[in-house]
Write a structure and sequence with these properties.
alpha+beta, single chain, 2 strands
Amino acid sequence: MNTHNQPRVTPTQPQQPVGGAIIDAQGREIPITENMIQRACNELDKNWVAPANKKG
């Protein structure tokens, strides 16, 4: 199956919970949203550094 030709699915309601939660410092359960995941991925992309080429 070739997934490169398939359109990307974008949720119409990015604030809807996606099925997980985090617990904050006060013990409250915070539902994880698509928007939260996208922001986290963008931060990772921004801060990613290629590993050094090790020769051994």
